[in-house]
Hints:
- Four copies of one chain form a homotetramer.
- By secondary structure, chain A is mainly alpha-helical.
- The first copy, chain A, has helices at 14-34, 40-47, 51-57, 61-86, 89-104, 110-114, 127-143, 153-170, 174-189.
- Helix content of chain A is 70%, strand content 0%.
- In chain A, 41% of the residues are buried.
- Chains in contact: A-B, C-D.
- Chain A binds a DNA duplex through residues 1-2, 12-16, 19, 39-41, 49-53, 55-57, 59-61.
- Chains A, B, C, D: Residues 39-58 bind DNA.
Amino acid sequence: xxxxxxxxxxxxxxxxxxxxxxxxxxxxxxxxxxxxxxxxxxxxxxxxxxxxxxxxxxxxxxxxxxxxxxxxxxxxxxxxxxxxxxxxxxxxxxxxxxxxxxxxxxxxxxxxxxxxxxxxxxxxxxxxxxxxxxxxxxxxxxxxxxxxxxxxxxxxxxxxxxxxxxxxxxxxxxxxxxxxxxxxxxxxxxx
Amino acid sequence: xxxxxxxxxxxxxxxxxxxxxxxxxxxxxxxxxxxxxxxxxxxxxxxxxxxxxxxxxxxxxxxxxxxxxxxxxxxxxxxxxxxxxxxxxxxxxxxxxxxxxxxxxxxxxxxxxxxxxxxxxxxxxxxxxxxxxxxxxxxxxxxxxxxxxxxxxxxxxxxxxxxxxxxxxxxxxxxxxxxxxxxxxxxxxxx
Amino acid sequence: xxxxxxxxxxxxxxxxxxxxxxxxxxxxxxxxxxxxxxxxxxxxxxxxxxxxxxxxxxxxxxxxxxxxxxxxxxxxxxxxxxxxxxxxxxxxxxxxxxxxxxxxxxxxxxxxxxxxxxxxxxxxxxxxxxxxxxxxxxxxxxxxxxxxxxxxxxxxxxxxxxxxxxxxxxxxxxxxxxxxxxxxxxxxxxx
Amino acid sequence: xxxxxxxxxxxxxxxxxxxxxxxxxxxxxxxxxxxxxxxxxxxxxxxxxxxxxxxxxxxxxxxxxxxxxxxxxxxxxxxxxxxxxxxxxxxxxxxxxxxxxxxxxxxxxxxxxxxxxxxxxxxxxxxxxxxxxxxxxxxxxxxxxxxxxxxxxxxxxxxxxxxxxxxxxxxxxxxxxxxxxxxxxxxxxxx
DNA sequence: GATGAATGAGAGTTCATTCAT
DNA sequence: AATGAATGAACTCTCATTCAT
Lengths: 191, 191, 191, 191
């Protein structure tokens, strides 16, 4: 009987937290490689735990998927925040955009996290902060004259998601990614 | 009699050909609606045939998916060809591009057909002719000064695919689709 | 100190005994409500202890079920004893019978405790004392002329169990319970 | 069972019907022996079919249980009808009652079928006809003076269910069954 | 050729039980 | 003694695929 502070998540036992992380890691890798249709058992195996352990941490496959995406979004948001803090306003947005597309060439889950609408996984507004950072990057780029004033955050998010999905499912190589991005960036710049 | 791409396809019995078509139609609809995870039995039911019949025509679910995409690509190619024949060179590419993105907002299979690489479904080069038409549209647009010279077919294909996937999985509404396309089009126009 | 049925039970630590009781109470409630298929974890939660504690006290779910029934039987025996001591000989049996049936309309475990044979849970003869009290009630009722001489304890036990199970699984309302009992009581009275 | 006279069940293929019957038979046996908690796989094995076949015929375990009980009830109803047709009015009810209790000493499912309320398996009123036959038997017995006028069908049904459950879960032997029934019958006869 | 019943390998999920903390 | 995380067998159910009719 642990006095559970009326809060939400009570501090997990050391081993539990370690496992939780291993599972998240494994799930990230497995789903990135085989898509969300990959089996939970694969995740368990990769994490080196029994299947029951996965389900103890994430009562449903859905929950696992959700957790993974939240996690990913949080990391991306941090990255964007960092860029907003000390990147060159004129290029930060482009840099981030390109970097993200780069990543998703290897991830099968990235994109879905960018589209709260697209998935039916409610992730408790974890997209919000991310979107906010994109908005910041956008404003700065516009202030620096690097992006046409009319462009809105919506479109940037949409283009980001589309490029990522394209890069992923299309299997674009680095060169093609670069040239495609160049076009999109030009579009953001000119009327 | 019928031009058959591969070796020994014998002329099908009339009812067999009719069934083949009904299955393809049903599969198109079903997979468009529920994604490729939809069950083959649903397809059979929608086509009004028994499950065995589906498997006689397409020995594998994979084969069915493949056939569907070939079919779709053929239709798209025809559309592009028509535009190349009598559309305005300056706008035909854009028109086609926009039309396709529009469609995929409702289709769940379209995009995958655009990326022979992305899918693991080899479709015997059915992408070739499609790509050729896109190339034609592109050249004309460039000749008409509507697209910057440096742009290659590759990028156009890639952007097309990306936009379609975005439109589909992102659930973009008509407005967002329009604004996103505007940016991409501007990118194609300006250096 | 405590009268313990089996061999070498050492006097439990105070908190241990308290826990044991809380578990028994919780188990009684949970199994009464959801039947024996309810999960042990539910019991633990209701008792406010960890699952490990439940298994420390009752190494097996079976053991827990068993203990619960012994417990219940003991309570019933006490009740019967009280009635035998100061109830009206002519009606005490009937009163007790009716009361028990009444209870089992709300309990999902009661009945099984009445049938040592029926369950595969050996309960170390805890039925014995209970049965003895029923026998007493019966003898008195017969002495008072309220029950036909030929009736034996066996049948009374059997009828009791049957009525309880009927009341429980059949979902009889108070009225039906009354009328059904009336018939059984009449049967006990007349040849 | 019966040639599907009712509703829209289309005539099953010969092998399908054979399997359906084998599954029902197996399920009857398995559930009778181990109770409704027995696994569907056991049923499949006993029926000599693959697990998928069981689920093709009965999409849910629930459905299987339901079917079994409907089946059983139909058989019992037929039996009761026969007795109503050519049995001795004075004894037919008792005969049937006794026979049923006898059976349920070996069946683990019988009883539940008698209590539409008790189970949460809706069986489309299959209890109705059965109940009607019991009512008939009862009326005749009352007309013949073998049962007290005040007794209603409700109570008879309830007693029947209770006795069956008792016989089943209590593991009564033939002798005890006889003596218990004698008491109940006496109760039905006398005020 | 068409039919649709049968197959059986998995998938997600639960839960009694064990054991490190 | 108590805790609660980990285990893994078992269960229900799905679906691509095969094959007797």
